[in-house]
From TrEMBL:
Source species taxonomy: Bacteria, Bacillati, Actinomycetota, Actinomycetes, Pseudonocardiales
Stated family: Belongs to the CdaR family.
UniProt name for this protein: PucR family transcriptional regulator
Xref: InterPro entries: CdaR-like_regulators, CdaR_GGDEF, PucR_C-HTH_dom, PucR_C-HTH_sf
Origin superkingdom: Bacteria
Domain PucR C-terminal helix-turn-helix span(s) in chain numbering: 334-392
Pfam families in the record: GGDEF_2 (PF17853), HTH_30 (PF13556)
Ranges annotated as spanning the membrane: none
Domain CdaR GGDEF-like positions: 177-286
Amino acid sequence: MSNELQHLVDALAQRLRQPVAIDDTAFRLLAYSGHGEDVDDMRKAVVLTREVPPEGLAWLQGFALSKAAQPVRLPANPALQTDPRIAIPVRCQGMHFGCLWLIEHEPIADTELAVAVSFAGQAGELLFRERILSELQNARAGELLRDLVSDDLEKRGCAAAQLTENGLFASRGATVVLVVLAAPADGSDLGEDDRLALSMALDQAAHSVPERECLRMVRPTHGVLVTTEPAQRHSPKLATAVHEAACRLLGKAGRWRSVVVGVGPAVPTLADVVTSYRGALQAARVADAVPRFRPVAKSGELGVYGLLAGLPLDGLTDGPDSTVNRLLEADPTLFATAELFLDHAGDARTVAELLSVHRASVYQRLRRIEQVTGVDLADGEQRLALHLGIKAARMQRLV
């Protein structure tokens, strides 16, 4: 938050000779003046953590302060050990930005309250101006981010330079990309409301990383968040936060085949971000196709699926007479048995334990698999071809 807001708070506190604070619409502290020893417990907690404790938040939400047009007097709350206080809405151009707070140890005169209301108006104008500037910066950063992940090498270099030179992104260490992919169950495209929900999810998750170490945009099928590796280490649950916010804001769980997040590899420079972006998008697509990778898939942990994701899969599973299709049509349990057998390097005992069947049943199924597919499971190359075909079927969501 700008120094101007802090100067405004300090000036009002000096004029009224009492502590002043301004918070945002989520009751997160934006600026505050010096406080004496007689400050109540909730204000102390807010100053220390910059957030209202959960029990205090529930109490404040009951006053519907976002809808208030005039100062609201809140009574003391002995259970929360709070003194009486006054909330003055901070507004500009019809937009609500939060509240300016005064603790009312002694009744505040109307003349002093009028001064505080005037200062709240100035704070609203300041926050409105900062909002506009922030939106312009975000729009510019979004344009440069599109160039940064394009196929044009020259564009990528220019975009990286401009983002750094204009102070829109601080390249502190390696850079990492997260992709949030929402796949409608009916295969339709994302609507405008869906893209807005993804944008809001990215904005919410971005609160946990430094502002100048975060870029984000929404593409027709997915959202993109770029951050630094140090920021990601500091916020290890960032990918989970993105996923949770997207699920919450997209709503209607039955409408989605999946909502997943892919994490790309760390790359040394901002100009290399396209590599991390492609890895993150690939990881998200694998997680969409293969449930065991959900909800967050990392590009370096995809195994054989990482190899298959970059290849045309049709040739491995196409046609009614393909090995995999013959196996699926014969009996789905044969497909599952073959996959487990190949995943566990031909260990029939482990397969039997995983399927909860006798080992003799596994051997019977293996013979049946060889009959149906024409594959000799004792031949390494034939086993590999069948294994790849099975994984390709998973990628194509044939099973």
